[in-house]
Amino acid sequence: MAAEPERWIEPTPVPSTEAGEGLVLSSAQVQDWRERGFTLVDGVIPYSMVAEARSVIEGLVAGAGDEGQIRDFGSDGTLEFPTGHAPIDAITLHSDLLTAVSQLLGVQVEALRLTQSDVWAKYGHAEKDGNERSNDDQRIHMDYPNHYLTHPPVWSKPEAVEMILYFDDVSECEGATALVPREGEEDPAYAWPYQNMPGFGALRWVNDREAAEAELKQAVPDVAEFRQEHLYSREVRARFRLGTVLFYRHDLWHRGTWLREGRRRLAQNLCFRRADAEWIHSVQPGSAWRMYRPGQPTERLIANASVSQRCVLGFPAPGHSHWTPERLEAVRARYGPLGMDMAPYEKG
Ligand SMILES: O=C(O)CCC(=O)C(=O)O
Ligand SMILES: [Fe+2]
Q1: Whole-model pTM above 0.85?
Q2: What is the pLDDT of residues 254-293, one digit of tens each?
Q3: Which of 9, 120, 236, 254 is the best mutation target for the ligand 1 pocket, counting ligand atoms within 8 Å of the beta carbon and taking the most?
Q4: Which residues line ligand 1 (CB under 6 A)?
Q5: Is 220 helix (H, G, I), strand (E, B) or coil?
Q6: Fold of 8-294
Q7: In the chain, pLDDT over 70 holds for what percent of residues?
Q8: CA of 177 to the centre of ligand 1 (A)
Q9: Which residues of the chain have pLDDT under 70?
Q10: Domains of the chain by residue range
């Protein structure tokens, strides 16, 4: 792939004079998230709290150069909320964080549900380990396939907010999150449905960028081409420091990039959904992470389950307002190749 010049997005601070009574984000930050798919913000969680949490995390995860580094996503469950460490746990339900999420979704805090909170470390290596599942240099992707049982809604009706809280400075560790801002209704990168990624439909899930793109080029050359032309070439990078929060969405194209050799990056991933969006499931080692395992066991199970069985998992029943024509089309694209019969949902 031809090297693209790096373009950077700078964080903006939370407004010092309150955006409005009881608000945390400015209207420009909210608008950024709603229109482009993300906003990068400093000062949501008090700096002293983030620094204190960081010092606790440091004592719990392997250092750069130590044994026991995890090269996959997450903490193997050890730093999932609640961790039992008060300075870390104070972040997940911090009132300003919840207010920010409620502003983005336009619902009351009481109508939010936590679906993910995990602190994890990522490490910079001299070279790749040859594992196609490695998280070091990710393929560009959306996150919805292991959060959603179905498919995200049309852009203007978001159901969830994802976040990355960074505990380091990108100038020291590198590993900036790369993002593809959505540019309006006609943006070809965001044409409906969102399907041009490994793990969608019958496409195998592969994490490593080079392995994923090589496989797509062989199997579905037009998808590989789309990804080069509309996604990788448009990446911008998030300039984070200690305490910066990236608010983003399940339907934003993005990826994690390579860290500087010998460095470590600490970050926390969080996600809140609307209480009524039951088809966004909690990120847990069972059905959620198994969506990224060889053979796609979760997706195959859903595709072949009965309508009632799917309901029990949180999949919307026939006749539910979830089933707009757009979502019928998108869910058919996702599960049709795995054998799902969409007829019960089409009847309305
Ligand atoms: O590590 C990052 O910066 C992003 C990680 C990511 O996108 C993911 O694991 O889904
Ligand atoms: Fe991601």
Answers
A1: yes
A2: 999 999 999 999 999 999 999 999 999 998 888 788 878 8
A3: 254
A4: 73, 122, 138, 143, 177, 254-256
A5: coil
A6: Jelly Rolls (2.60.120)
A7: 98
A8: 7
A9: 1-4, 18-20, 348
A10: 8-294
